Structure formats: C-alpha cells, structure tokens
Amino acid sequence: SEKVKNCIFRDKHDRIPIISKDGKVMGILYEVDLLDEILHNRSISIKRNMKVPVTVSKTTNLASCLEILESARAHMAIVTDRENNFLGIITMEDIITELMKS
Known about the structure:
Layout: H1 2-9, E1 15-19, E2 25-30, H2 31-39, H3 46-49, E3 55-57, H4 62-72, E4 76-80, E5 86-91, H5 92-101
Parallel strand pairs: 3-4
Antiparallel strand pairs: 1-2, 4-5
Helix pairs in contact: 4-5
C-alpha cells in the first residue's frame, strides 16, 4: 500500500509496527522484506511479510530490555501493557543512550 511505501521512503523507517484498530500489537514489518515487492511494483502484502515482534512490558527495566533484544538479535522492541496494547517502541540505541547517562 502507499502508506507502507511512504513510511519507508518518505519517513525513512526500516521497521514498521503493525497495530490493530483497537490498539493491539499484531506484528512488525521490515523494509528489507518488502523491497522485492516494492522494486517489482507488486502489491505489498502486510499479512505475508509481517513478523512476530519482540515485545517488552512497560515495567521492564533497561538492563532486561537490552538482554531481551540481544537474545532475540533485534534492534527494536514494542512496549505493551498487560492486554497487549501498543504503548510505544524502544530501540537498542535508546537503551544504550539511557544507560550511558546513568
């Protein structure tokens, strides 16, 4: 869809969280997984390309977030509440920056 292309090219996002209309985390899209479809002007399938995201609770401390991301070999986690509602994202860069301040 055009929204996905704009998110990647105009807004320069390489990872896009997919959130349902009622605020639940559904998955994550990675730019690299969509490039073939985009380059060949095929319709983009969000469902086919969506991956299971790394999620952390809003109460997870930074050191634990870092461990979770490292073990998942991920650079970003989606922050959720107990009902799997989307609250935000945290990146490896965010964590390192905060830990360096401490």
